[in-house]
Amino acid sequence: MIQNRHKLDEFYRKLDAEENLSYKEALAIYEMLHKEAVSLGAINSENILDGLEVDIRIAKAINRVGL
Questions:
Q1: For the residues 40-67, what does the mean pLDDT come to?
Q2: Phi, psi of 56 (to 5 degrees)
Q3: Full-prediction pTM beyond 0.70?
Q4: CB–CB of 8/2 below 8 Å?
Q5: Separation CA 31–CA 13 (nearest Å)
Q6: What is the pLDDT of residue 66?
């Protein structure tokens, strides 16, 4: 549970200001992470959306309580 929302917001603002990734760099990181997940068997083209409904429900619940 988040104890100090203002502190967390400040942390994310600082993080956003310090990270200067271009679109190409961000895409390269995403592609490397995707490739590793596939090689580990964590995801594949058949199960890529498995559990998405649960993730959406959890995100909605978190957003409702204002975290």
A1: 82
A2: -65, -45
A3: no
A4: yes
A5: 25
A6: 65
CA distance 27 to 21: 10
Domain layout of the chain by residue ranges: 21-65
Q: What is the 3 state secondary structure string of the chain? A: CCCCHHHHHHHHHHHHHHCCCCHHHHHHHHHHHHHHHHHHCCCCCCCCCCCHHHHHHHHHHHHHHCC
Q: How far apart are CA 25 and CA 29, in angstroms?
A: 6
* Structure token digits, residue 28: 């390269």
Q: Is the pLDDT of residue 7 over 70?
A: yes
One-letter amino acid for residue 27 of the chain? L
Residue with tokens 């967390």: 8
The one-letter amino acid code at 25 reads E
